[in-house]
């Protein structure tokens, strides 16, 4: 397939996914057909079926692409000072979830409609391992934490579920949530590290 043809195929596929996202927001997952999707995307019904064999496949692809879009920009594997990296990460995650709250709620609705469990993690697991490795190497992990347990704990702290829980009652803003997360992170970081 030529590069131009590949670009056209990709553009058509993206147009169909974008149309599905609009229909999902406007009507809900069960209130549109593949025919309606084709019309919304401005393509023939057969074109939709060339790209996606069923509405379920369209919704699964939409959930998957939405989930991928929620990931924070790749932080790389270089951490520098692990305490600074951890503090920066907590702030970045809070800002990220505040900006993408509506998208996560749409993704949850989509997951409920399709019966799939779509992840909503913002932080790459490898980056978390780098931070924990840096904390451990610098002697900043509390002695009762293994690096695996500390990584799991940080994954939980940076998840949307934790953000959502902390956002709740009383209603907190991103800075207040970051402060709570920093207090929770102290359970992982040794007292002499601060």
List the helices and strands and how they pair.
Elements: H1 3-27, H2 34-41, H3 45-51, H4 55-69, H5 82-99, H6 101-114, H7 125-137, H8 147-157, H9 160-167, H10 174-185
Helix pairs in contact: 1-2, 1-4, 2-3, 4-6, 5-7, 5-10, 7-8
Please give a structural write-up.
By secondary structure, this protein is mainly α. The protein has two domains: 3-69, Tetracycline Repressor, domain 2 (Orthogonal Bundle), CATH 1.10.357.10; 82-193, no CATH class. It is built from ten helices and no strands. Helix 1 crosses helix 2 (34-41). The protein starts with a helix and ends in a 9-residue tail after the last helix.
What portion of residues belong to β-strands?
Answer: under 5%
What's the number of domains? Answer: 2
The structure class reads: mainly alpha
How large is the count of helical segments? 10
| Oligomer type | single chain
Helix content: 55-70%
Brief account:
The protein has ten helices and no strands. It is mainly α and 194 residues long.
What characteristics describe this protein?
Tetracycline Repressor, domain 2, 10 helices, 194 residues, 68% helix, 2 domains, mainly alpha
